[in-house]
Amino acid sequence: MDSLQLLFDGFATALTPVNLLYALVGVTLGTLVGVLPGIGPAMTVALLLPITFNVPPASAFIMFAGIYYGGMYGGSTTSILLNTPGESSSMITALEGNKMARRGRAAQALATAAIGSFVAGTIATGLLVVAAPFVVDFAISFGPEDYFALAILAFTAVSSVLSRSVVRGLASLGIGLVIGLIGIDQQTGQARLTLGIPQLLDGIDVVVVAVGLFALGEVLYVASRLRHGHPEVIPVGRAFMGRSDWARSWKPWLRGTALGFPFGALPGGGAEIPTFLSYSVEKRLAKGREFGEGAIEGVAGPEAANNASAAGTLVPLLTLGLPTSATAAILLAAFQQYGLQPGPQLFDHNPALVWGMIASLFVGNAMLLVLNLPLAPVWARVLHIPRPYLYAGILLFAALGVYALNASWVDLVVLYVLGLIGFAMRRFGLPLAPAVIGLILGPMAEIQLRRALAIGAGDPAVLVTSPIAAVLLILSALILAAPLARRLLARRRQVDATA
């Protein structure tokens, strides 16, 4: 059955009244958490994991996908009106967007961000429909050594790209790998790192880890830095664009989409790099326009790249089980909570779920356009919610959700310990994404490594006999070596300049 027919079947799933309601809830929540600084889609999905166990998988993932896309939309609102990005991927939008708002063009900035996000999200989701089956066909040939090498590539790429330094990224990855070791070894039956606590024999639930690191750690970090006073929010009316704004925006939308989708699909690519590249491209092509003073191209291109990267992230997640961002890692945890493993078998055994989720992205994009254009003033008012009330509610909701998992006080203790770890990681600049990806992919990498060594009778050379594994391991080594090479080149240039 071809992709187009599968997509039509997916629309049959996504367009049921119940799933439409879940999609609406998802995109509304996503926009809300995107608007509020410091609360991203990763934290929101993590908080909702405990309460979705009684929800059908297709409905849950349609809602999660809506939260993911909505968070990308909403982040632009705070960047433009408050000069405070709701998401790290919206940092570039703040450069020109806030200057447009201060010049009285907030409505145009919000409109080009919303429409550009819709255009990019729709095109990128179409590319996802085309690309996913090809990646699935390729992934069917993977052996244990290939999956192990793929996990190593994810570890190195995410640790290098999503951190200010490789050392901090690898330190965060190490924390996640250690947490993933807790529990009974699946092959030997030996208890590892349980400290004699029976409740830890099954390991630490990934929901507890996600909520602890993302939600509780964020609450503690914000509380430690909270300053009284209300932020200055630039007033805005209904979002709209004039004819000249359309003429200046449509090409940046397409260029941003072309940059965002492939980078989103790369391990560690994320949305930050393509948004920065899009801004650089538009600045070079500006031909004397008011870049640095509020150029609409500087909002249109990066926002398109931002949303296109979200669809790109779903390609390796759904086809290979490989998360390339923090939110994708939480989505992978959600799949595992339902007893599902993303990859080629997911497309064969659960086509209604996969294609229903993909089809819901088209529906969610349309919903987001309707929500963001006329309701821009409403989202601006959300920024006036007092932070103490907001984060106290998150703390209460996190504790109740985690306790509801197993009604165990041990889970609450682990939650608060992980919250302190998350706070310390933020305080010292360690990114959270490598820790979550290490926790989720670490056990899989260990199992695949053991299988590969068993097939090779203990010979480590089996790990590089496959061409795919060899290429992936070489890429991992290059990623780790790149920062060192850049530092050596910079030092050599400095020596040559002073000589």
From TrEMBL:
Q: Does the keyword Membrane apply?
A: yes
Q: Which residues cross the membrane?
A: 20-39, 45-69, 109-132, 138-158, 165-184, 204-223, 352-371, 391-418, 461-484
Entry keyword set? Membrane, Transmembrane, Transmembrane helix
Q: Which Pfam families does the UniProt record give?
A: TctA
Domain DUF112, residue spans: 20-437
Answer whether the UniProt record assigns the keyword Transmembrane to this protein: yes
Coiled-coil positions are: none
In Swiss-Prot or TrEMBL terms, this protein is called Tripartite tricarboxylate transporter permease
User: Which organism encodes this protein?
Assistant: Herbidospora galbida
The organism that produces this protein has a lineage beginning with: Bacteria, Bacillati, Actinomycetota, Actinomycetes, Streptosporangiales
